[in-house]
Amino acid sequence: MIDDYRAKGLRKKLVRTLQEKGIKDEAVLKAILDIPRHFFFDDIFLDHAYEDKAFPIGNEQTISQPYTVAVQSSLLSIKPGDKVLEIGTGSGYQAAILSKLGAEVYSVEVIKPLFMKARMLLTDMRLHAKMFLGDGSKGLPNLAPFDKIIVTAGGPKVPELLIDQLKTGGILVIPVGDKQVQRMLRIIKKSDKELITEDHGTFRFVPLTGGDGWR
Ligand code: SAH
Fold it and tell me: What was the pLDDT predicted at 1?
């Protein structure tokens, strides 16, 4: 894997595009500038890696659009050392961004070949993320609580078990809707009884499967 000046130049351009679309979080923009997104693509698709588009990664799944990664990462307000659970590792790109932001990342993927590929890639890139194979729709109860939880597949509802696995003051960012289109929700756990739910607009994700997703 080679990260050359051409790729770096394309990343600078991508960052400018994201700024024009309203992304302001400097740490997130820096992480996108630093992480070679083309490493997460098969060679043949290298030219597509720096367009602001989602792209197929095999097994009917996609690497999220950079704008979506930027929005979700910004909504999480990552502080270095935050313990973050990601559901839907996919290519591993979002996990790499979170790791670059200084988070202690726990990422779950249900499709084995994707899990294997992402785990190998992040290890090669010397990015530390703990990777798990299995249904993440119920979180990782044995490793809870988490400061932040991010779901990168669209589900029909907010899984209650994910709220349970958040610390007080914790944040869950999750797209919720039907199988075609979802609303990006940010849920802040003020206390065990009080949740603040914000709506951050329309997005399109592949479906969240599993027990608390689309069965
Ligand atoms: N964050 C990814 C985007 C992946 S697309 C990236 O940066 O590339 C969503 C991923 O969620 C797919 O790989 C899909 O297999 C996975 N997924 C869907 N339902 C899941 C579940 N219940 N548990 C774990 N992963 C799931």
Answer: 82
